[in-house]
Amino acid sequence: MINACQKFALLVIRPVISEEANSKVLSLACKERTDDIAKLIGEHHDLFQEVQGLPPKRAVEHKIQLISDASLPNLGMYRNSVVENEEIKRQVTELLESGAIKPSSSPYGSPIVFVPKKDGGWRMCIDYRALNKITIKNRYPLPRIDDLLDQLKHARYFTKLDLKSGYHQVQIREDDTWKTAFKTRQGLFEWLVMPFGLCNAPATFMRLMNDVLCPLLDDFVIVYLDDILIYSRSWEEHLAHVKKVFMLLEEHQLRLNPKKCEYGKQSLVYLGFVVGGGELQIDPDKVRAIKEWPRPKNVTEVRSFIGACQYVWKFIRHFSVLATPLHALTKANQKFEWSSRHEDTFRLLQRKICEAHVLALSNLRRPFELEADASGYAMGAVLMQDGQPIAYYSEMFQGAHKNYPTYDKELLALHQAVKHWRVYLLGKETVVHTDHRPLQYLQTQSKLQQVRHMNG
Q1: Contact (CB, 8 A) for 275 and 267
Q2: Is there a single domain that holds both residue 248 and residue 163?
Q3: Which residues form the Reverse transcriptase domain (predicted)?
């Protein structure tokens, strides 16, 4: 309770901190942080120098091991437009000058393809599908994005680092360079550094990043391929963390792209999501892409749209139910006929994603709340902490589950939700909210129906 004197004191003090004064304080703090970062970058300026020649020999190099007795494909060049041929010539010249490629006498060769870049330019890539088909796969794991995001609940400051042409900072094993040969009108060339398009390139690069940053991972650094995120609870702590990462990158002679690095932010986009303040939002660019997505004209385009939506499905209550008409179009032997129902579903999903909730990041040290419900044909659930949603989950009932009585469907919904969020709930205190009164007597009921369907 606030007494009369306390109320008066609050009334007297409040006008002193005006919006203008508060803005100046924030601006001053922002300037001080900018100065701190500028000083740190100046102390480690070598990190931002252009890579000259080949990167150093490292413990991690890219290997291309082929299936035994596999015959190497030798493919012809694709036809390119005049503009594309000019771009090939320009990029090949740059790559030769930088030492990334060299002329080749390989008996093998792959054609060139172009991939559009975000900035409107074109990335020259090699069509290595035939080579990848006969390459022994490297199963080195990439981290789960949700596991990485779970580290960020208490972070107040973020720095995102991007390596300069990260793949090109990894050498290809000398015995394997000839396998990367590609054809141009200027001749045959092979890579000395790792290019895009090789099936094992992500695994090699992830191994390098884990080896380099291993001492700091999950303490204040997470990394997904060449996207390094440093996160801290205080500004002083953050400066120390960034410095430690800079020192490790210098030690391993890795270079950063200054145009793509972001420093000391209180929120930023990472791996398709906006993180900050203990919350998670969908990247506005992803929202815009889905909002502007053209109406699908065939099954492939429907699958592509569903895939884009599924990346953010945990933001949408009852997503699986809402998307059912579109999923039905992708079934085998299903004739593609776009009806008004599909059009309504398509527009509804676009709208739901544009209006998606802000989710709270999970605090793994606090209790969770779980709310689950069921209808005649589907179930839905939400995982929460302190009343704030962390994620949504839904699925359609299949087979015999469709015929369960209401009580068993509600229980099945709860069971499926607990299974789905097992990594959060195992060993944790959890409060279950239900609007189905009979579930309150679950622990005292003498006989449960359909138990065998809920085991495991």
Answers
A1: yes
A2: yes
A3: 96-275
Shared domain for 128 and 255, answered yes or no, is: yes
**Are 288 and 435 within one domain?**
no
Give residue 413's pLDDT band: very low, low, confident or very high (50, 70, 90): confident
Same domain, 110 and 217: yes
> Which run of H or of E encompasses 239?
helix 235-251
Asked if residue 337 and residue 395 are part of one domain, the reply reads no
204: nearest Cα among 59, 65, 55, 60: 60
* CA within 13 Å, CB half, 230: 23
Q: How confident is the model at residue 15 (pLDDT cuts 50, 70, 90)?
A: very low
Least confident of 3-7, 180-184, 256-260: 3-7
Q: Which of 336, 354, 372 is the last residue of a domain?
A: 354
Q: What is the mean pLDDT of residues 178-201?
A: 96
Rounded (5°) CA angle 243-246-248: 110
The per-residue pLDDT of the chain, averaged, comes to 87
Q: Is residue 412 situated within a structural domain?
A: yes
Residue 83 CA to residue 446 CA, distance in Å, equals: 76
Other beta carbons less than 10 A from residue 188's beta carbon: 15
In a domain, 381, yes or no: yes
Exposed e or buried b for every residue in 367-403, given b needs 16+ CB within 10 A?
ebbbbbbbeeebbbbbbbbeeebbbbbbbebeeebee
Q: Render pLDDT for 32-61 as a digit per residue (tens, 0 to 9).
A: 888 899 999 999 999 998 877 899 999 999
- Residue 417: CATH number of its domain: 3.10.20.370
Its domain, for residue 318, covers: 284-354
Express as a percent the part of the chain with pLDDT over 90: 66
Residue 382, both tokens: 């939400």
- Lowest model confidence (mean pLDDT) among 296-310, 371-385, 401-415: 401-415
455 versus 85: which is more confidently predicted? 85
CA–CA dist 395, 405 (Å, integer): 17
Block residue for tokens 């009334």? 11
DSSP letters for 287-348: HHHHHTPPPP-SHHHHHHHHHHHHTTGGGSTTHHHHTHHHHHHTSTT------HHHHHHHHH
